[in-house]
Specification:
- There is one protein chain.
- This protein is mostly beta strands.
- The chain folds into two domains: 5-58, no CATH class; 79-293, Jelly Rolls, CATH 2.60.120.
- The protein has helices at 28-58, 252-261; strands at 10-11, 17-19, 79-82, 85-88, 99-110, 113-123, 132-136, 142-143, 151-175, 182-193, 212-217, 220-228, 233-239, 246-250, 269-293.
- Strands 3, 4, 5, 6, 7, 8, 9, 10, 11, 12, 13, 14 and 15 form a 13-stranded mixed beta sheet that branches. Strands 1-2 form a two-stranded antiparallel sheet.
- The protein starts with 9 loop residues before the first strand and ends with a strand.
- Belongs to the glycosyl hydrolase 12 (cellulase H) family.
Amino acid sequence: MQNMGSSAPVYNTAGRPLHYPLSSGIDYKLATRQASRITAMFAKALAFVLFAAPFLVSAAPAELEASIDTSTHCGQWDVVTASQYSLLLDQWGKDGATSGSQCASLVSLSGSTISWKTNWTWTGGSGVKSFTNIQLNQGINKQLSAISSMPTTWQWSQSTSGTVVADVAYDLFTSNTAGGSNVNEIMIWLANFNAGPISSQYGSDGKPVPVASSISLAGHTWNLYSGSNGANNVFSFLPTSGTITSFSGDLKPFFTYLTQHEGVSTSQYLVTAQAGTEPTSGSATLTTSAYSLAIN
């Protein structure tokens, strides 16, 4: 460091000059006021930073809308993946129709909330033509005993042309092993448009008979139907009345009910978690404005 001699000012630790050499020609009072002003400004700036820092750190950044494929897909087995979700057209029963088609597209993805839509027209045949759905790919293959919660929201609407036969439902499958073959199918219907669940019992009027009635779960009341589709045990929860177009709740209690009352083992693995529509006939457009599901 160079030695500046006696012509250099001396500062205290706050940055204010203790004295200037007389030979410097600097007005001591003016220099002192300027230094004091600078020190005060620095103190104010430091105080603001200390005050604002906790807010700046804790403020959560706004969720950005992800860039996804929003083009329309109409192929029988088309799949479109966006983050933790996949859109599956899954037109597994289309060969049973005399005519018809179905298309679907993603609309947006923001954080864990996805929106999508599908339109379909099917004629002929009494069976289900498809299950176009959103599938969760994250958190599956957990044993039921290891799942603490399954929070979900689903807001949707449907416009129809004439009479339709369809349902809008969650569709979940369990297996004896992680990634294994399906053993149990659990459906949670939010809407029943002239369709009907699989059942082992039917009344004299031809309608399915529930194995349990008026079950309170996730803020709604349900009837439970049980039967077989030839390959899996099928448990279907249907609202006791009306249609649920805005659902928000936890799906875990539905599994808890089945393990406590219907003999489903807690050692079963959840291998598939989907939500969509099963059309049989008619024309409709299903629009999901917001959907989310997590497995904790």
